[in-house]
Specification:
Elements (H helix, E strand, L loop, with lengths): L13 E6 L8 E6 L5 E8 L4 E6 L7 H19 L1
Antiparallel strand pairs: 1-2, 2-3, 3-4
């Protein structure tokens, strides 16, 4: 699991796992519950919009803090892509 120390990505409820499946040009980032280890969704590249987007798994609920953390992770991926 990856995290950025001292940032909004230090959410006490979420952790991220970055995967690079063979043949993919962009990462898939799993979003997991720290307390249950359950996957809550994925951040993946959406070619039609030319940006990373969050794809929540079914029957998941997110508060503002969790959404801010997910948005910060997407921003980080987009910045990395620009570099």
């Amino acid at each position: 699991m990856t995290s950025t120390v001292g940032s909004i990505l230090d959410n006490p409820y979420l952790e991220f796992e970055e995967l690079w499946p063979e043949g993919r040009k962009t990462a898939i980032v799993g979003v997991y519950s720290k307390s249950h280890g359950m996957r809550l969704g994925q951040i993946m590249w959406w070619g039609r919009w030319r940006q990373y987007c969050f794809f929540p798994d079914g029957h998941t609920i997110f508060n503002v803090g969790c959404m801010e953390t997910i948005m910060a992770r997407i921003d980080e991926l987009m910045e990395r892509r620009k570099a």
